[in-house]
Design goal:
CATH superfamily of the largest domain: Periplasmic binding protein-like II
Structural class: alpha/beta
Strand content: 15-25%
Distance between the termini: 98 Å
Largest sheet: 7 strands, mixed
Helix content: 40-55%
Number of helices: 17
CATH topology of the largest domain: D-Maltodextrin-Binding Protein, domain 2
């Protein structure tokens, strides 16, 4: 009996010890607050060649260094960017943040989220229009990232040989005509590269669209601009036709000393132009009223689940000194004063300031839904039907007929 009681007591003690041990073990494994902040992953879509991709990677690395709780995955498209973006929108895989040209905002507005810019100091931008021209229907859909302004490059040696003075600040179309014609008298040399109507309509003071989104390219100024482009090749004979240059790189003509003026010259040509060593060259203002420029912005998807993180990335790319200095060190114009310093330092012996002066004079095309199809139709008609290309039709008739077609395209796009 005594042995039985001892056995019972021993069992009770062992059970008590076991439960006591379990209680201590549960306390020691209770989850504690994480020591590191949770990482949020967002996607960022952009486009460009190898150099542009390397720049984007550098910007994103700088962002993640400052925002350790945000991981950014880059979706890069070398070409057909807008088409690929449309497919992602249709498939419900729109990235959180996207690069977008100002002219394309209308086409993607339904997939974008209007931005709260109440804390953005717009005075840091080189020009107010870089910010305001990314607005559509009263909403700010993007912040500026970089801008493409257009100037002219010229061969100093050829101008000197032709007795042409270096163009000054105010460069008129009449003076350009005289200068390019004089240079074209040199054997085997064109005074200018082929004239690009998309720029010259603005240089003449016209536009492709009115601010209200209606067609404007068949105005008197528009017709005068196209006729001038035709006459440059067929009357004044200082520029090649589109047929003459088909399949050829006219920039290489300039580098080979076969062209005095190289027009429609954006900052993206800088790496190639910098390779010139056998003649002196520089930049001058585009003749007339300056031309057209495009602003590239950064926008937010309206389906993102990480609005705060997406906005942090957008603001960083648009306004952070680190990001804009990276852009300024490339072949793209930055949008802030910090980036401008870096851009100007690249080629101190060239008139790089003109790319920024142009921001005050050049026109940003209004954001118009259906603009791409209109522009494609217009350019095809000009080069197919007038002497600028392979046709022989009257410029005024062609533009009036295309205007009717373009108006119908715009109405269809609004549906």
């Amino acid at each position: 009996m005594r042995k039985k009681m001892l056995s019972v007591l021993l069992t009770v003690v062992l059970l008590s010890t076991t439960f006591a041990g379990c209680g201590k073990q549960e306390a020691s494994t209770t989850p504690t607050a994480p020591t590191k902040e949770e990482t949020i992953t967002i996607q960022y879509a952009t486009w460009g060649g190898a150099a542009e991709k390397a720049t984007e990677v550098e910007i994103i690395d700088a962002f993640m260094k400052e925002h350790k709780s945000i991981k950014v995955e880059i979706i890069h498209a070398e070409d057909s960017y807008e088409d690929k973006l449309q497919l992602m929108v249709a498939g419900g895989t729109m990235p959180d943040v996207v690069s977008i040209g100002s002219v394309h905002i209308a086409s993607f507005a339904s997939a974008l989220s209007p931005l709260d810019t109440s804390d953005i100091d717009t005075s840091q931008y080189i020009s107010d229009t870089l910010f305001t021209k990314l607005q559509y229907q009263g909403e700010q859909y993007a912040l500026p990232k970089r801008v493409n302004t257009k100037v002219f490059a010229y061969n100093k040696d050829l101008l000197e040989q032709a007795g042409v003075e270096i163009p000054g600040t105010d460069y008129s179309i009449d003076q350009f005509t005289k200068d390019a014609t004089a240079v074209s008298k040199i054997e085997g040399v064109y005074g200018s590269s082929a004239l690009y109507y998309g720029q010259w309509i603005y240089q003449f003071g016209g536009s492709i669209f009115n601010e209200d989104g209606t067609v404007a390219f068949n105005s008197d100024l528009g017709k005068e601009a196209v006729q001038y482009c035709v006459d440059a090749a067929n009357k004044y004979n200082f520029a090649p036709t589109a047929t003459d240059t088909e399949g050829q790189d006219v920039l290489q003509w300039f580098m080979s000393k076969k062209v005095g003026f190289f027009g429609d010259c954006g900052p993206y040509y800088l790496p190639t132009l910098s390779q010139i060593t056998d003649f002196d060259w520089d930049f001058c203002n585009a003749p007339g009223n300056g031309g057209e420029m495009e602003v590239v912005g950064v926008a937010m998807s309206n389906t993102t689940e990480h609005k705060e993180e997406a906005m942090e990335l957008i603001k960083f790319i648009s306004t952070a000194k680190a990001a804009q200095e990276i852009i300024g060190g490339t072949s793209a114009c930055p949008v802030t004063e910090d980036g401008k310093v870096a851009f100007l330092a690249q080629y101190p012996d060239k008139n790089m300031q003109l790319f920024f002066d142009a921001m005050q004079t050049q026109t940003i095309q209004p954001i118009v839904k259906g603009a791409s199809s209109v522009i494609n139709t217009l350019y095809s008609a000009i080069y197919d039907r007038t002497k600028l290309g392979g046709g022989d039709e009257d410029v005024s008739v062609v533009l009036d007929e295309v205007a009717e077609e373009a108006t119908a395209l715009l109405k269809e796009a609004q549906k």
